[in-house]
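Lab meeting prep.
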Amino acid sequence: MLVMGCGGIGGVISAHLAERGAAPAVVTHNATIAAAINQHGFRLRDGANSRTVSGRATAALPNDAGTFDLILLATQPPQVTRAAEAARPHLHPNGALVCLQNGLCETHVAPLIGADRVLGAIVVWGASMPEPGVYERTSTGGFVIGRLDGADDARLDTLRRVLESVGPVEVTHNLAGARWSKLAINCAITSLGTIGGQRLGELMRFRFVRRLGLEVMSEAVRVAQREGARLEKVSGTLDLAWIALTAADVSGPGSPSLLAKHAVLLAVGAKYRRLRSSMLIAIERGREPAVEFLNGEVLRRADALGLAAPVNRRVRELIHAIARREVRPSIALLRRLYEDSRAEAYAATASSAAASQPDAHA
């Protein structure tokens, strides 16, 4: 096995595999991370437990590295195609490349590798790397694995056995629907976490942040459904088709279903309260944010379908502004996003109402 990328997710996976004797080859293009692992091993923090796992990492994949049956892509989404191209010569003819990123990265990698050689693994847990070579698991969970075309594949059984050393694994024949559900959630949680600059538990305490999250997810759900995706529940519980705002939710702020949806987001915030946006961490480290693979992905598909996604559009703009250091992440910036979205929604409603009135001069 080969693991490409050694941030929070890649580091935790590599450490667990090494701990159980699998000893994958590990590549990180960050020489500082590679040096820390080679000097100290993988230093794991899992709740109150801390331990060190022996392991090695390299800052570049040697040309004579040979071939691998499974190549796990654990880079950030902006680096996924570059990592796939670097790994392609080392993929065994009968092997599979596995996308672990958020978003719909399988669709970006398949043209380079061949769709039949690409598997997907949705990561349903969180991790961070507070310092090079130190990995902290921020929430529990496992994986959902499959192929975008839903076909059976014997390599999925191999991948399941490999990943079970990290957490429980579910095999799905509807990876596309599961991917879309996770994408909708990440468009809200990861992106709003980037703008707000706080951990998820703190953000979800604010009602206006929860409302923004519902609107971001609702736009993504509409795009997914128009594309024909059959949305899957995330972790078997969070139903994205249900959580999307209805006309009653929009017109009646006290509707029972809207209150229930806020309660669900509060529960999510409590469960993943320690989660800090990986996209914000990437920006802080001077890297390109993954927003084009999240909200940007929704927008490109919405534009192609003729659908409006104004909140996702504004979220993307603000994250690029944060990356350019034009604005700083803060709760106040999220509040401004909320107020701007309210003003835009009011203007659109007023315009629609005016258009529906008979012409006074007719």
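Slide two material, second protein:
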Amino acid sequence: MPEHFDYCILGAGLAGVSLAHELAKRNHTVCLIDPNGIASGASGTPLGLVNPATGRYATLSWEAEKCYSAIEANLRLIQSYSLIQFYKKTGVLRPALDEKIAAKMKSNFETTNWPQGWCSWMNEKELKLFHPGIECVGGGVWLPIGLTVDIATYLSSFAEYLSNQNVECFFNVNYSLKRNQSSWSVQFSNSSSIQTENIIYTNGVEANEVLENYPKRMTPVKGQLAILESN
């Protein structure tokens, strides 16, 4: 096992695994650490959707075509290394829950330059015929390109792929950090240790536990977007 890495990533969820992949592609030496195992935190949700119609009114997400293309390419890559099928193009149906939402959703649909074949509007009758029994008021949008992903299986397959791409993975083992003059020392509970130039926290609110000695700590939020701008 290498004793020195350019980057040490703490947290093996969607952010940590994806970042490890990007750094490794750029020829950096990378290790991925999670004492609770792969997808043990918020990323361990049973299912995920790749859905470009975001928010209450099904607004086309920012840079949607680039994002969708990158996600689909990544899913195909990892699927080629896995014997378990973990994603499928199921489509995403977004029914409106009241007349106000329906009007805004329809306006969004009509005024947005959707990529061809991505989105169509269904009135209430059409939508209920398409999906009998669903609650709907005024209609909704159908996105045939929507993907459903078994996130935990995807991340487990991703981590296995990374281990074959020279990313060292340390799961289910506790660790402690020590700052040296020009690097960090990571000491594992099994008495092994490594050195790294950089520590990257991708373990969500759990980072508070290791940042407790720092003056600024994170505040946990759910379903929010933080926009940070420099001066």
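Talking points for slide two:
The two ends are 43 Å apart (CA to CA).
The helical segments are 14-25, 64-79, 99-111, 124-130, 151-163, 207-210.
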